[in-house]
Design brief:
The chain is an all-alpha fold and 166 residues long. Helix content is 72%, strand content 0%.
């Protein structure tokens, strides 16, 4: 079961990284078109800035979920490195549990917020606003998946999670 959860987390993170790359390319393209349109053609596009803002929100949150998988997020390891190895492993599990709880709260509250704003549309592109607001619950669920997989991973003698992808 732990192996299956880790594999699901691994492949989800890989797919997420590709989605982030595609969204970043589209976002940068829309911003370049906006600059070209405004300064070369003399008229600005009404949709490009809103599209870039929506994609920026999604790419930031999606990239953050992939970072959770490998615990590559910003954290202060100086104090942890002075703890005994057994306590380091315990502390890493506590941190992972807090991240898991935060991601669950993000998913639940993000879903509730999305439901409460249904029916609204974005200003320029007239897209349902849920396109933007769904980033929170989706990324909450993805982050919870990665934190859950990390929480149940076996640890080595140094207190670091072992890689079990096979």
């Amino acid at each position: 079961m732990i192996h299956l959860l880790d594999r699901l987390s691994y492949w989800t993170a890989r797919a997420t990284n590709w989605v982030v790359i595609v969204m970043t390319v589209v976002m940068m393209t829309s911003l370049i078109l906006q600059v070209y349109s405004r300064y070369v053609l003399g008229s600005s596009l009404v949709w490009s800035e809103e599209l870039a803002l929506m994609l920026f929100t999604w790419t930031t949150l999606l990239a953050a979920t992939s970072i959770l998988r490998d615990m590559a997020h910003v954290r202060l390891d100086v104090l942890i490195s002075y703890l005994p190895r057994g306590f380091q492993a315990f502390w890493n599990r506590v941190i992972t549990l807090v991240i898991l709880l935060f991601c669950i709260a993000l998913a639940v509250s993000g879903y509730e917020y999305t439901v409460s704003t249904m029916g609204q549309v974005s200003a320029a592109m007239r897209l349902p606003i849920e396109v933007l607001h769904l980033a929170a619950p989706v990324c909450g669920v993805l982050g919870a998946l990665h934190a859950l997989a990390r929480f149940f991973k076996p640890v080595d003698e140094a207190g670091q999670p072992k890689e079990i992808i096979g």
